[in-house]
Design a protein that fits this description.
Helices cover 39% and strands 32% of the residues. It is α+β, with helices and mostly antiparallel strands.
Length: 92
């Protein structure tokens, strides 16, 4: 993940909060993906494509009082979602 790049959900992808974390649904492929935590679901769902990933992550971490290690976990999960085509860099 490029920390200076802005990211957002791919068009046609939606996140629904669930008791266990969240569900990601792609209307294009009709596939469903599970998110393992509420933090991840909230972070990914809040990516607007308007601020660099580093700033978005720092804002989210500070609002939630999360450790730097938690931020690393969010980045790893976000990278996996990008590989699946569920998250995209703005301008790509």
């Amino acid at each position: 993940m490029n920390l200076s790049t802005c990211y957002q959900l791919t068009e046609g992808v939606a996140i629904r909060p669930e008791r266990f974390g969240g569900l990601v649904y792609s209307y294009h492929s009709r596939q469903l993906y599970f998110l393992h935590s509420h933090e991840l679901a909230d972070f990914v769902g809040g990516l607007s494509g308007e601020e660099p990933l580093a700033a978005a992550l720092e804002t989210f971490r500070s609002r939630r009082s999360l450790s730097p290690e938690a931020g690393d976990g969010l980045l790893r999960s976000l990278a996996a979602l990008e590989k699946l085509g569920l998250v995209v860099a703005v301008g790509d």
